[in-house]
Write a structure and sequence with these properties.
The chain is mainly α. The protein has a domain of 53 residues. It is built from 4 helices and no strands. Helix 1 packs parallel to helix 3 and helix 2 crosses helix 4. The longest helix has 17 residues. The chain starts with 7 loop residues before the first helix and ends with a helix.
Length: 78
Amino acid sequence: MMTTFTPQDEDERRWNRYVELADLVTGDEGPTGVAAIVSSLKVEEDYGAYQSAQAALWRFPNEDFGLFGAFLGCSIRK
């Protein structure tokens, strides 16, 4: 697997956009919103962005996590 590097200003722009989008989450997006946030967590070094994602996940009702789990289970079986 080849690693690619982006300029620091581009990394910063992407990080800021990720945080901005996470802050827009209301919790009304349903299980697909939970899935989108969880699937967006990819890079270990993005601690600040993960804090925003975690805060966004707290906005969802518990039922959405159960539905996300059911959705995930169906996706894995395919």
